[in-house]
Design a protein that fits this description.
The structure is a homotrimer of 168-residue chains. By secondary structure, chain A is an alpha+beta fold. Chain A has five helices and seven strands. In chain A, strands 1, 2, 3, 4, 5, 6 and 7 form a seven-stranded mixed sheet that branches.
């Protein structure tokens, strides 16, 4: 095979890698953009399926951190009375664009999430919570899934600032 | 032609398709990111041009759904006294990242929109409305345009949750 | 070299350009998604490093526009008592997706930013400011940096609408 053909083949292989990287970033952004619609529609199974079978979801409840372990506990959260009340009143889990660090078959994404709720008495929407989010992701059999999502409420607690400071 | 060359050509054609998919997703995301700046600057023609000539924009007004049909009605909405008041007071139509389902020359995008307004009396910004959005898009002569945008207010109404539940 | 090979080489060169464009858009989106985590974690050097050495950050303070010139002034803003108070109370600089106009080694990005703060007395989050943003960017030695970021508060001032109207 000529040198020119070898060069072309190298260019093609290099380009393939670059396209695969862009595709991975797009799939991760899409996964994160899927969370809100899944959880705000009460789609428990679709929400849980974003996580790895043994994935965890840790978030602030008061000053503490609660941990949901595995898809069953995530489904239960969506189906539970607290979440059902929130979505029946009217709610958006509004997530910002993520900064994604990709490393082969794993990734870490950093973004914000805002829970905006509707108050039927005053007929007004309001910002209920804003959190710093870190998503640890892994690609299994070609599908990106959440290994751990960690949310710290942005109410002045040090952990939230520390999470954001690790992002890049 | 040798087998190796045939293979290279197939790889190149496959790569082209994958790049075209990423470009389509980027163009749709860009169209959606163009809505806010267009409507908040009062650019009536630029706003209407995001829609197909016969495109529709349906959104909640009170418990009902209002339908604007065609670019003229969209332009009129932007130029109308209601919208002019909103943007002269100060407003952001803040849209979230969309989850996009691409199918050749058509697409469906799901996202949230938040209207944040400024109240000159209290000198405070406030969240006026949060809606679930579904954008039905079509590519005509190489340009993505909105065939229908449907917004349901997230104030507890069932239609909003149903829209979000269809997105996956 | 045969005609077919020449054609393949042209296709490959064309594809490379298209991938480079997608990569540039992705890098700019990532830069903008890095601002919030950097500034909300108080990472003064990481915030300043998003700017060009002589980059400027101009934003509304009351009816006027303040200009920070160069990385040192941006670092000082992050370390200053005003910003430290904001992040110690709990804050998110929540940025929306940008519409990006790319022109070789320069770019202009238009988006919104929302500062959501926490009020410890009422234990509530609130939207403190919403601004129209224009980012002028330049690629230097392969790295995208901010030449000028201009924010106009969306409180009804004409400059904010004018900025948004230039974006398309």
């Amino acid at each position: 095979m000529s040198n020119e053909l070898t060069e072309d083949r190298r260019s093609l292989a290099d380009l393939l890698q670059r396209v695969e990287r862009l595709e991975a970033l797009e799939e991760i952004a899409r996964l994160i953009a899927s969370y809100g619609p899944a959880v705000d529609s009460g789609s428990a199974a679709a929400t849980a399926a974003l996580w790895d079978v043994e994935g965890r979801y840790r978030f602030s409840v008061g000053p503490d951190l609660v941990t949901l372990r595995g898809r069953d506990q995530i489904e239960e959260m969506v189906q539970g009375p607290g979440h059902q009340q929130i979505i029946n009143d009217g709610a958006s889990h509004f997530l910002g664009s993520a900064r994604i660090e990709l490393d082969d078959e794993t990734a870490v994404a950093t973004c914000y999430s805002m829970l905006v709720r509707y108050d039927g008495d005053s007929r007004r929407h309001y910002v209920d919570r804003v959190s710093a989010n870190r998503w640890v992701l892994r690609r299994t059999d070609g599908v990106w899934q959440v290994v751990e999502r960690l949310n710290h409420l942005l109410d002045g607690r040090e952990e939230a600032r520390a999470l954001l400071g690790q992002s890049g």
